[in-house]
């Protein structure tokens, strides 16, 4: 489902110097697989997800969704592809404060077909599955952190995307709510999605098909875990 080949990305620093972030990254995640990426702060984890999810362009290399070389598309075409194919789960939730929980979930509905009623029913069913159906008419400020992340998760999966990207999805949650979100991400992989999680949590490694470590822009796959992480 997802393939990155020799992906390179750098930024321009305040002094004008080039700061390399990704140095020829290769990654492949099949449908139904769960991949976990770990690494220190500033190692390039979030940049990698942004490139994989078409939020940022590469400076070199290619990103493929199936047989489509999506990194070569125009920005407008990438936006349409992202809306149809990718679900994002962010650490900071990124809910719109002026919209209710239900309306935040429905934001993703603009990219799917079907009637407005069908999409609304799908959104309500997801909120019920995540245990927040009773909060559908509440605004983000009226929700706990765990409830906000559950709503954000529903928005990410409303379109049943084949690719799900999660950037520190439990970073602002307590352990119980963190376990709920990790379980939902595993369930999405079990349903056939390709799932990539960037996280510091060791329990995210449970059930992972592949574990990667990124350091200085280089991605390496671990075939086994260090003893302290088992």
Would you kindly provide a brief summary of this structure?
Helices cover 30% and strands 27% of the residues.
Describe the secondary structure blueprint for this structure.
Layout: E1 2-12, E2 18-29, E3 34-38, H1 45-52, E4 60-65, E5 68-69, H2 75-85, E6 86-90, H3 101-106, H4 116-129, H5 145-157, E7 163-167, H6 175-190, E8 194-198, E9 210-215, E10 218-222
Parallel strand pairs: 3-8, 3-9, 6-7, 7-8
Antiparallel strand pairs: 1-2, 1-4, 4-5, 9-10
| Order of SSEs | EEEHEEHEHHHEHEEE
Number of strands: 10
CATH top level is Alpha Beta
Count of spatially separate domains: 1
Radius of gyration: 18 Å
The CATH fourth-level homologous superfamily: P-loop containing nucleotide triphosphate hydrolases
Order of strands side by side in the largest beta sheet? 6-7-8-3-9-10
What ranges have pLDDT less than 50 throughout 5 or more consecutive residues?
Answer: 224-230
Termini separation comes to 29 Å
Helix content: 25-40%
Q: Count of DSSP helices?
A: 6
> Which CATH-level-2 architecture?
3-Layer(aba) Sandwich
Task: Tell me the fraction of residues in β-strands, as a range.
Answer: 25-35%
Q: What does the average pLDDT come to?
A: 90
Q: What is the third-level CATH name, the topology?
A: Rossmann fold
Gross morphology: globular
Could you describe the largest sheet, including whether it forms a barrel?
A: 6 strands, mixed
């Amino acid at each position: 489902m997802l393939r990155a080949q020799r992906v390179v990305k750098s930024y321009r620093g305040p002094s004008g110097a080039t700061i390399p972030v990704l140095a020829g990254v290769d990654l492949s995640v099949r449908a139904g697989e769960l991949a976990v990426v770990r690494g220190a702060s500033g190692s390039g984890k979030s940049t990698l997800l942004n490139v994989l999810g078409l939020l940022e362009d590469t400076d070199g290399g290619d990103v493929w969704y199936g047989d489509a070389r999506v990194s070569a598309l125009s920005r407008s075409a990438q936006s349409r592809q992202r809306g149809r194919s990718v679900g994002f789960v962010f650490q900071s939730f990124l809910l719109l404060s002026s919209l209710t929980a239900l309306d935040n979930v429905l934001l993703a509905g603009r990219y799917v077909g079907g009637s407005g009623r069908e999409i609304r029913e799908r959104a309500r069913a997801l909120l019920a599955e995540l245990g927040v159906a009773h909060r559908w008419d509440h605004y983000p400020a009226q929700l706990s952190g765990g409830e906000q992340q559950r709503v954000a998760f529903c928005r990410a999966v409303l379109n049943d995307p084949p690719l799900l990207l999660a950037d520190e999805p439990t970073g602002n949650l307590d352990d119980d709510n963190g376990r709920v979100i990790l379980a939902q991400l595993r369930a999405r992989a079990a349903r056939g999605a390709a799932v990539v999680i960037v996280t510091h949590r060791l329990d995210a490694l449970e059930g992972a098909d592949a574990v990667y470590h990124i350091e200085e822009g280089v991605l390496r796959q671990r075939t086994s875990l260090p003893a302290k992480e088992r």
